[in-house]
Amino acid sequence: MCQSTPPADLVLVMDATAGRHARRFLDEHWCDVHARDLRPQGDLVVTELVTNAVRHGAPPAVLALECQGRDGVSMRVSDAGPDAPELREAGPEALGGRGIALVDVLSAQWGVEAGPDGKTVWSRLVGQVPAG
Ligand SMILES: [Zn+2]
Q1: Which UniProt keywords apply (predicted)?
Q2: 91-116 confidence digits (pLDDT tens)
Q3: What is the pLDDT of residues 20-62, one digit of tens each?
Q4: Domain boundaries of the chain, sorted by first residue
Q5: How many angstroms separate the alpha carbon of residue 81 from the centre of ligand 1?
Q6: 117 Cα to the center of ligand 1, angstroms
Q7: How far is the CA of 62 from the centre of ligand 1 (A)?
Q8: What is the Cα–Cα distance from 87 to 103, expressed in whole angstroms?
Q9: 22 CA → ligand 1 middle, Å
Q10: What Cα–Cα distance (Å) separates residue 85 from each residue in 13, 24, 37, 39, 50?
Q11: What kind of fold does domain 8-125 have according to CATH?
C-alpha cells in the first residue's frame, strides 16, 4: 500500500486524444515517492492500454492508477468490449503503437480479466527487481 498517493481513476474519452489525456492524468496522480523511476515506462504502457481500448473496446472505458509502494504501480484499463487484446508482433497495421507486445516487455506482470460488463487489461510496473 502507498501512504503518499491515493488511487485515482479517469473516465476516458474514446478518441485520438485519449493517450494524451491519460498521460496528463499520470502527471497529476503518479506516485513520485515510490515510482519516480517508472514514469517513462508508465507513459508508454498507459498509452498502449488506452489506445487499445479506444481502437478495439467499447465505452465506457476507465483508467485506474494505483501505487502499491514496494510492489510497484498498477494501471488498469476497463472497457465494455468483450474482445481481449492479442499478443502479436507489431505490423504495419499497428500504426503509431506497438500494441500489447510493448506492454508485455515493460510490465513486471500484465493480464486480461474478463467480466460480465466487459474486460480489464492491467499492467504492473516494478522498479527494483530483487536479485536472484
Ligand atoms: Zn506510492
Answers
A1: ATP-binding, Kinase, Nucleotide-binding, Serine/threonine-protein kinase, Transferase
A2: 544 444 467 888 999 999 999 998 88
A3: 999 999 999 999 999 999 999 999 999 999 998 998 899 999 9
A4: 8-125
A5: 31
A6: 30
A7: 21
A8: 9
A9: 18
A10: 19, 24, 27, 23, 12
A11: Heat Shock Protein 90 (3.30.565)
